Amino acid sequence: MINIKKLDRELLSVEKPARYVGSELNSVIKNKEDVSIRFAFAFPDVYEVGMSHTGLHILYHLLNSKDNIWCERVFAPWTDMEKVMRKNDIPLYGLESKDELKKFDFVGFTLQYEMSYTNVLNMLNLADIPIRSKDRTEDMPIVIAGGPCAYNPEPLYEVVDLFTIGESEELILELMELYEKEKISGFNKLSFLEKAAHIEGVYVPRFYEETYNDDGTIKERKILNSNAKEVITKRIIKDLDKSFYPEKSILPYIDVVHDRVVLEVFRGCTRGCRFCQAGMVYRPVREKSPDTLVNQVESLINSTGHDEISLTSLSTGDYSCLPDLTLQLLDKYENKNVSISLPSLRLDSMTFDIIERLQEVRKSGLTFAPEAGTQRMRDVINKNLTEEQILGPVETAFNLGWSTVKLYFMIGLPGETMEDVMGIKELSYKVKDKFFQRPKEEIKGNLKINVSASCFVPKPFTPFQWVKQDSMDEFYDKAKSLQKEIKDKKVSFSYHEPKLSYLEAVFARGDRRLSDALIKAFEKGCRFDGWYDVFDFNKWMEAFEETDTVPDFFAKRERELTEVLPWDFIDTGITKKFLISEYNNAMKALTTSDCRQQCYNCGVNHKLIGGACPHVINS
Amino acid sequence: MSLIVKYTKTGNLKYISHLDVLRFIQRAVKRAGIDAKYSEGFNPHMKTSFGFPLSLGIESIGEYFEIELNEDIKPDDFVNRMNVVMPKEMQILKAAYSEDSRSLMARSSYTEYLFNVEFVNLDFNKLNELIKEIIETGIVFSKQKKNKKNKIITKEYNTKDFITYLNAFEKTGKTVIEAIFITTETGSMKADDLIKIISDSGFNIDYYTILKVDTLDENRKSLL
Ligand code: SF4
């Protein structure tokens, strides 16, 4: 255990000390002597962000459901706490036992966004664990990582011993079983990693080597260890109704980002938006049944006393039993002061009588995500929405009494012209007109339209994985022109910082050669890069320079369709052929319909399901 | 019907702020399935009221809240049902229906503390002299405060206006100080200030913990 008195002396000097002490209701305390595997679930961001992440709650309770495993949590200490820890020699520790991380068998990071990579490094360093896996001795924890960013694991290849690709509820237990066995027969890290490499979905980067052409592109990947597979296939959970879901969730004392019961209703998405990595890599769609969900809601409400239920997924409105489920939940909870919210709801597909009863939505205003301002641009990105399909629901919402509307757009989409950019303004003004084009007596409330634009980041495993990102100058030009043009008291405009999106783009499609720059940036003090007030762009540029890394090569370069991409060895189920055909359609502004109506053979049917996707209506 | 409830806040929960405790307890009431009264209106909230906030970093075995209920529940049942859904660091000790119509804060006149102090090279006689001075002649100390205009001003206070009882003794190598503070609405002298006064008087303190033992009424009796 770390020195508790030392910690106690300092904790009152940091912001929100409750971030660092654990002891929440439903957190799990076990007897060290009774377990053989100590697992630290590491979330490389602050407590409040990490505790709002559903995956953490699932894996935490899943691992703890096994008698031989004790899973604890650890988050990135905020900058004030880091200073205190370094000054007083307090190593990073597991919140439950307060044991140093170094004593654990596993440290498992979840990689939710690229901008958390320096935090991964910093957390290892604070735990006194060497950053590079080759510098870690046999008695040190095995560092594993999973989550959406693991679909391109290469920038972290030197740091992480083993990646888990895809959904890990089953995989993680197989890994633990293997570890337990290996431990009994005399543990050796290499032999463990070799055996682990045979588990589907496991990627051990040290078993591969990459060579490059003169122009900097990848020449080939060589296998260095006979246990390593050529292709790593992502894991999926076939039946979500049968899959583990915790009956309890840890109840934080302090306000966290999502202070409510969060329940995923289905995984995957059929919309096929071409910019969206999640929409591609989480295929196929798998729904939970309303019965399962109602039971899960009940036990979670009972174990936490939360007063809000949030039904999430990539596109909750597409859930086939949504009316049935929401009405069941409303009937059950409306009179118990429990409210229901439906984020990521596409209002074109939603009946308003349900929304009307969801008062939580009313309070926070309505969100629409047209993503692009012109029809042509929306066709390019395959956001299958016409102007009428945007303005129609907006009008309905106004008629029902809403007056605050958020509109989300992207700038820098492939093939975007200034006309497309200005389309954002025009569409926003049309939304405004809808409000005032109603009979005078019906116009109530104070109209507020918040328009926000994010900078497009091309992601692996999307039809846009080959395209170049706009330069920062182009982003600023576009954003600033919009800022100049949108001059209306009712309409406000804000944009996401291009520098952050640039760095995100570098790492999203980066390869092994970014490792040195990443470590350098960490050494220079980069942390919490996703937090704009902490983010230090200049330090990053220095780090690239000092390590002879050209970030533009990763962000701003158009790739040939034939180029070997750093993530090509991972199989998400979706074929490259499908991605190329979608890329070609995009260039011609041709749309592909929602694959609930018609299957486009993206590949997950043959490769992951072994048959047609069950959700296709015409199959 | 208004129920007065006494509870603890120990261990790591000493780092949880007053507002967070408030929300946590309201959720516990829900988990326990107790039928509490809610305010009317668009955004109804549970009708509870709490005593003076406990400073962050202090443990307590004498915290109070008051709750209005729709159901006629036996106080003992309330205690049992709540404790099932509360962590071990926050347990309900007692509950009773109240006949006093004054608010919890209005009833709080004194606060009793226990300080566990680890001194380096302590001269116990000197400590006793200091204690005498603190309650008899009083020691003047100053604190920075924000005034109504949000300006920072320095104000002076005298310990004898705030502490009515102070006694130190040694127990298994450690020094224990018992204290009774007068509860003031402004919270002008906090338990931590006493530690600061002792260390400013030349005592070397390595480590300390503070436990609030109870809130006392005007007759120096426990509120419950
Ligand atoms: S296989 Fe067909 S139906 Fe299934 S996700 Fe791919 S395109 Fe959609």
UniProtKB/TrEMBL annotation, chain A:
Residues 255-490 form the Radical SAM core domain. It comes from the Bacteria. GO terms for molecular function: catalytic activity; iron-sulfur cluster binding. Pfam families: Radical_SAM (PF04055), Radical_SAM_N2 (PF19864). InterPro entries: CHP03960_rSAM, Elp3/MiaA/NifB-like_rSAM, Radical_SAM_N2, rSAM, rSAM_horseshoe, rSAM_sf. This is TIGR03960 family B12-binding radical SAM protein.
UniProtKB/TrEMBL annotation, chain B:
Residues 3-189 form the DUF2344 domain. InterPro entries: DUF2344 (IPR018768). Pfam families: DUF2344. This is DUF2344 domain-containing protein. It comes from Sedimentibacter hydroxybenzoicus DSM 7310. The lineage of its organism: Bacteria, Bacillati, Bacillota, Tissierellia, Sedimentibacter.
